[in-house]
Amino acid sequence: MVNTLYLPELREMLAADDSQELREFCSAIHPAGTADFMDGLTPEESWRVLQHADPVVRGEIFHYFDHDKQLAILSSQDRQEIAELVANLAADDRVDLLNELDPAIVQELLALTPSEVRRDILRLSAYPEGTAGAVMTTDIVKLSEALTVRQGLAEVSRQAEDVETIYYLYIVDESDRLRGLVSARQLVSAMGKPDTTLGELMETELVTVDADATQEEAAQKVARYDLLAIPVVDEQHRLLGIITYDDVIDVVREEATRDAQQSAAVAPLDSGYLTTGLLELGWKRGVWLALLFFGGLLTAAALRTYDERLVMWPWLIFFIPLVISSGGNSGNQSATLVITALTTGDIKMADWLRVVRREFVVGLMLGGLLGCCGLAVFWLMGPETRTLQTAAVLPLTLVLVVLCGALTGSILPLIFQRLGLDPALMSNPFVAGIVDILGLLIYMNVALLLLSQVR
Amino acid sequence: MVNTLYLPELREMLAADDSQELREFCSAIHPAGTADFMDGLTPEESWRVLQHADPVVRGEIFHYFDHDKQLAILSSQDRQEIAELVANLAADDRVDLLNELDPAIVQELLALTPSEVRRDILRLSAYPEGTAGAVMTTDIVKLSEALTVRQGLAEVSRQAEDVETIYYLYIVDESDRLRGLVSARQLVSAMGKPDTTLGELMETELVTVDADATQEEAAQKVARYDLLAIPVVDEQHRLLGIITYDDVIDVVREEATRDAQQSAAVAPLDSGYLTTGLLELGWKRGVWLALLFFGGLLTAAALRTYDERLVMWPWLIFFIPLVISSGGNSGNQSATLVITALTTGDIKMADWLRVVRREFVVGLMLGGLLGCCGLAVFWLMGPETRTLQTAAVLPLTLVLVVLCGALTGSILPLIFQRLGLDPALMSNPFVAGIVDILGLLIYMNVALLLLSQVR
User: Fold this and answer.
1) Which of B157, B274, B361 sits opposite A354 (nearest CB)?
2) Nearest chain A CA: its distance from B384 CA (Å)
C-alpha cells in the first residue's frame, strides 16, 4: 500500500533521468525493500531504474522482483546487459529462471556469459526439478585441510563477496571429495591459535545429501539438524554444492502449498494464483473435477438400485446428504491427521496398527456422538408413525458411516505411503468420494434390514 | 529402523556402567544422531546415558529428544541435575518446555537455576504463545558502536560458545536500543582494517519485528528478506532478542500442519498424533463434526420441502449426491487456492475483484464441462421418457452449482481475511457444507422450473 505512494516520484526521477537520486534509491535500503518500492513499475521501467545500481546490487534487487517481472526483463532487454546480470545472480536462482525462458533466448544469453558461469549453469540444469541437485548452489568456500587458521581467515576474507555463505567452510581433498567442515564460529574461536590447521579443527561427521535425493529429504535433514546449509555430494562423495537454510524455508513453504492444493484436488500450480492462465487453471481443476464426477456416478447407480424402497419410505431421502457428509467429514479428519503426521515424521509405517486401532476407537466415539444427534433429528423430522425399527435406522447408520470414514481415511493414506505414492493424494476429496459410496450402501442396507421387518 | 539395532549394545553399556564407552557414544556424532540412536530407550535410561556427556553436549542431545521424552525426564529426574540441564538449553526452547510442565515442578526448578537464567525464563514466558516474543532467544551478541573491528572480533571469539548465533552482531546504545547490525561476513571482510569502528561498518536499515507481533509475521519477514535472524524489539526499539532461521523453519512447518488440520475441521492438536489422548482427539474432532451435522440438517429440511416432487420424479433423487459433491469439490478447490495464495502473499485483499472475476470465468468453464458430463449421464441413467425439459435439469443444475461453489469458495475466505479472522477457517468442509445447501436449493428450483412445464 505505502509503496505505491512513491511511484510518481520514481517515475519523475526516471523521466528526468536523475542519475544521482536513482543511484541513491537503489542503495539506500535492503534490496528486498527496494524491490517492493518498484512493485508498481513495469518491467521496462524497473530495468531502467536498475541501470543506476552497481552490478552486484542490481542482481540483489532483481532477485526480489516477482517471478513474472523477472522473466519479462530477462526475455525483453538487451542480451549483453542481461548476460551480465545473470552472471551476478545466485547460481541456483539463475538456473531456475533460465529453465523457464524461451530456449532460443537462453542460447543467446549463454553465448554471452563467461565460460565458468556457463559451465556452472549447464551442470546445475542437468538435475531434474525437485531434486537436491536442482536447488543447490555452487558458490561455496572450498579449502584444503593443510591450511592454517590464519590462512583460512585470509581466504574467507578474500572470497566473502562471491560466495553464498561464509559461515561453513568445506574442506575437500585434491579430487574434491568432502573431508570435513569448519564453521566460521570455530574459525573465529580459534583465532587465538592461528597456526592450528583446518584439518585439526574440522568436524568430520557430516550430514550430507545426495544430488539426486528429493529436495524434501534435504529440507528435512536441515530442519532436523538445525543446519545453516547441507552439503550436496555425488556417489563418490565429491562436494557438488550446498543447499542453504533460506532455500530450505522456500522448499518447506512450496511443499505446504503443493500439499494443500493437492488435497483439494487441484493439480499443483507452477506459478502464483493470479499469474496462472485461466485455461491452465481450468484444466488443472477440471481434470480432477470430472474424475470425481464419474466416481460420483456410483452413488447415482447405488440409489437407483434402491429406488423402490426410497419411494416407499420417502423420509429416508431427506437424510441422504446428511449421512454422506458425516462420513466424508469424519474420513477427511482422519486422512488429514494421518497425512500431516506422516509428513512431520510423527508416525511411521511401523505404527500402522496403532493408528488404525486409535481410529477405530475415536471413530466409535464420534459415531456414537452423531448417532445420538441422529436420534434427536429423527424425532424432529422423521415420519409420523414411529417404531423402534424406524427410529434405529439413522443412529445406527451414522455410527457405522462415521466409523467407516475414520477407518478409510486413515488406512488409504497409509496404503499410499506403503506403495511409495504421495499419501497427500489420498486426502479429501478422494477419501470423501469413496466414503460417499460406502456411506450410501451402509445407509440403504441398514434401512433394508430394519424396515423389512416393519412391513 | 537401523537405530534399534544398537539398542542391545547401549543397554549392555548401561548395565556394565561402561563410562568410557558411553562418553564416547555421546560425543562421537552430531547430537541429533545420538538422540536418534536413543529412540528406543526409556526416558529413565536415556537420562542415565546423558550423565556421561559433558553438560553442554548433554543439553544439545536433549534438545533432539522427542517432546514426550523431554517432558518425562524433566518432571521425573533429580531436580538439581535438571536445573543444570535447563540452564544449558537454548533460551527459547526451555521456556516452551517449562510452559508444559506441572507449575509446582517449575517453581522448584526455578529456585535451583542461576538468577540470570531465572530472570530470562520469566521474561520470555511473559509473551503469549504464538507471538514473536515467545519464540525469540535472548542469547545474542550485543556490542557498542565505539568498538573497533579488532575488539569486535575478540569479543565474538570470547562469546562464541554461549550465544545462539555469532553470524549477526547487534549494535545497541547504552539503553539497549537497536542501532545497527554487523554481520560476521562484514567483520571478517574488514579484518584488513582492524581499527575501523563497528559504527562505521554497521548497517542501520534493519528489518525488525515487534515482540507482540505474530510468529508468522516474523517468519514471513525472515523468508522474504533471506535473513539468518530477525531482531525482536519493544515499542522503544530496544533489542529484546532474535528469532533465528531454524526457529523460522519450525514455525513454517508448524503453521502448515495447523492449517491442514483446521481445513479438515480438526481443532489444531497441541502435540503429535500418537501422543494426543484419545479423549482429546475425540473432542477436537467431535465438536466440529457435530457442528457440521447440525448445519447439514438444513439439507434435510430443504429436501423435506420438495418431498412431493421427489416422489413424482424419483430419478431426481439419484443425482442428489452427485450434484452436491460437484458443488462442494469446486468450492473446496477455490477456497484452497485463495487461502494458500493469501498465505504466501500471492494475492492481497486489494485483488479481491480480480479473484472473484477469475473464479467466475473458471467456474463457468468447469460448470460447462460438468454440465456436458451431466447430459451424457442423464442419457445413460435418466428416466425412460426424455423431453428437452427433463434433459436440461441436470446440466443446467451442474453449471449453476459449480459456479456457485467457485464463487462461494473464493469469496468466503476473502471475507474472513477482511474481518481479521483466519481465512483457513473457511476452507473445506465449511465451504462444502454451505455449498451443499445452496446446491440442493439450486437443484430443486431448477427442477421445479423446468419440470412444472412438463406436467
Assistant:
1) B274
2) 13
Q: Which of B153, B354, B366 sits opposite A289 (nearest CB)?
A: B366
pLDDT of residue B209: 94
Does the distance separating the beta carbons of A248 and B205 come in below 8 Å? no
Average pLDDT over residues B15-31: 85
pLDDT tens digits for B199-213? 998 988 889 999 999
* Count, residues in chain A: 455
Q: Which residue of B has its CA nearest to A257?
A: B340
Among the partner-chain residues A166, A259, A300, the one whose CB lies closest to the CB of B322 is: A300
| pLDDT at position A2 | 46
Q: Helix H segments across B272-429?
A: 278-305, 307-312, 315-318, 320-343, 352-381, 388-418
pLDDT at A1: 40
Cross-chain CB nearest to A153 (options B191, B288, B294): B191
Do the beta carbons of residue A127 and residue A211 sit within 8 Å?
A: yes
Please choose, from the candidates A339, A343, A64, A121, the residue with its C-alpha nearest in 3D space to the C-alpha of residue A241: A121
Question: In angstroms, rounded to a whole number, what is the distance separating the alpha carbons of residues B223 and B217?
Answer: 10
CB contacts of A289 in chain B (<8 Å) are 326, 329-330, 333, 366, 369-370, 402
Tell me the ipTM for this assembly: 0.74
Residue B171: its H or E element: strand B168-172
Contact A304 B311 (CB under 8 A): no
Sign of CA dihedral B143, B146, B149, B150: negative
For an interface test with A, the pick among B39, B187, B258, B362 (most A C-beta atoms closer than 10 Å) comes out as B362
**Mean pLDDT, consecutive 10-residue segments, chain A of 455 residues?**
67 86 84 85 90 89 89 89 88 84 87 85 83 87 90 81 76 92 83 87 90 89 87 93 88 83 79 82 87 87 84 86 90 88 81 92 94 89 79 94 94 88 73 89 92 69
Neighbour-count burial for A149-177, b at 16+ CB within 10 Å, e otherwise: bebbbebbbebbeebbbbbbbbbbeeeee
CB contact under 8 A, A303 and B320: yes
- Contact between residue B49 and residue B25 where contact means Cβ atoms under 8 Å apart: yes
Q: How far apart are CA B50 and CA B53, in angstroms?
A: 5
Task: State the smallest CA–CA distance between residue B71 and chain A in angstroms.
Answer: 17
- The number of C-beta contacts closer than 8 angstroms across A and B is 364
pLDDT digits (tens, 9 = 90+) for B100-116: 888 888 888 888 888 88
Which phi and psi (to 5°) does residue B292 adopt?
Answer: -65, -35
| Yes or no, beta carbons of B365 and A157 under 8 Å apart | no
Cβ pair A164, A139 in contact under 8 A: yes
Residue A348 carries which DSSP code?
-
Name the pLDDT band for B224 (thresholds 50, 70, 90). confident
Q: Which of A163-167, A264-268, B259-263, B328-332 has the lowest mean pLDDT?
A: A163-167
Q: Is the peptide bond before B429 cis (omega within 30 degrees of 0)?
A: yes
Could you say which of A245, A259, A282 has the minimum Cβ distance to residue B245? A245
Helix (H) or strand (E) holding B143: strand B142-143
Query: Which position has the grid cell 416432487?
Result: B309
Residue among B30, B166, B347 minimizing CB distance to A205: B30
Predicted confidence band at B123 (pLDDT cuts at 50, 70, 90)? confident
Min Cα distance B370 → chain A (Å) is 6
Choose from B2, B69, B317 for mutation: most chain A CBs within 10 A.
B317
CATH numbers and ranges of domains, chain B? 2-126 (1.25.60.10), 142-251 (3.10.580.10), 278-451 (1.10.357.20)
The DSSP bridge pattern shows strands B239-244 and A168-172 to be unpaired
Question: Do the Cβ atoms of B185 and A166 come within 8 Å?
Answer: yes
